[in-house]
Amino acid sequence: MNKKKLGLFLLLISISAFSQTEKQYTKLKVSYGIETHTDKSLQSYKYLLEKLPDLAAKIETIASEFDFSLVFNDSTSIFYLEKKLYSNNSAADMALAKSGYFGRIEQQKNNYITEELQEAFGKFLVSRPYQKWELVEESKMIGDYACFKATTFYTVTNPEGKLFKHNFTAWYSPQLPYKFGPVGYGNLPGLIIELQGERFTYGVKKIEFYDDNEKSKGNELPELKKKKLITEEEFEALAAMDEKRWQEQQD
Q: Tell me, what DSSP letter sits at residue 32?
């Protein structure tokens, strides 16, 4: 390799290493709390209330013990659940199942990647497209931030072919011009301050800004686990096969 090519090669390595170093640190840390909502008309809830009333009552309140964090720089965010001890682990597991959170989530410019770590048929990183939002001419103040409304939905079909529509409302603030939010919801003209679903509501509790030059353990950007990366379609196909196997075992 001649000196000119060697110099170019070393320059490219330096640029790559510099870019990776920059991506390791966060500019903001957003802390979210969550409230979970229980459909008390469901037979499963009525059964739990009859058999284990103390546990049913605890599920209603334990979400207040959850602490979620969203950390990001200009290009990437990571959303995760802070590790801690809960007053009732069984209630925490059941409440967490309603939160839409199944592992850490990395949001990038054009897609977001979820750690699907609790699936019986395997543990994967799943690449998903962003939601398509409808921007609504409605606003409100949340704390110090002027927020604007956006809505979206997704549909799922159960094994019997019945279609279910799930609606979501986001309140985002252009005062914080970052296209991120909780549990993979984002790509709006501002940070999502509040996200309302049918089973949960996420809300910002605290926003911490880091100095642009700060590079320490305290503001390192976490990394996702090194698992196989698959598309959303591939994941849904695996889930359908697992559901079919489960039904066959019940017959």
A: E
pLDDT at position 156: 77
3-state secondary structure 120-177: CCCCEEEEEECCCCEEEEEEEEECCEEEEEEEEEEEEECCCCCEEEEEEEEEEECCCC
Q: How far apart are CA 149 and CA 136, in angstroms?
A: 5
**How far is the C-alpha of 134 from the C-alpha of 151, rounded, in Å?**
5
Closest CA to 66 of 26, 98, 38, 44: 98
At 225 the three-state DSSP class reads: coil
- φ and ψ of 83, to 5 deg: -75, 130
Kindly list the distances between the CA atom of residue 169 and the CA atoms of 71, 132, 166, 201, 211, in Å, as whole numbers in the listed order: 22, 12, 11, 9, 32
Contact assessment for residue 75 and residue 87, using Cβ atoms and an 8 Å cutoff? no
Give 20-72 pLDDT, tens digit per residue.
444 468 889 999 999 999 888 889 889 899 999 999 999 989 999 999 999 99
Torsion angle, CA of 55/102/183/54, rounded to 10 degrees? 0
Q: Are 149 and 171 in contact (CB under 8 A)?
A: yes
pLDDT at position 193, please?
98
Query: What residues of the chain score a pLDDT lower than 70?
Result: 1-24, 118, 158-159, 251
Nearest to 80 by CA among 66, 91, 94: 66
CA-wise closest residue to 202 among 114, 70, 107: 70
Q: What is the distance, to the nearest Å, from the Cα of residue 137 to the centroid of all Cα atoms in its chain?
A: 26
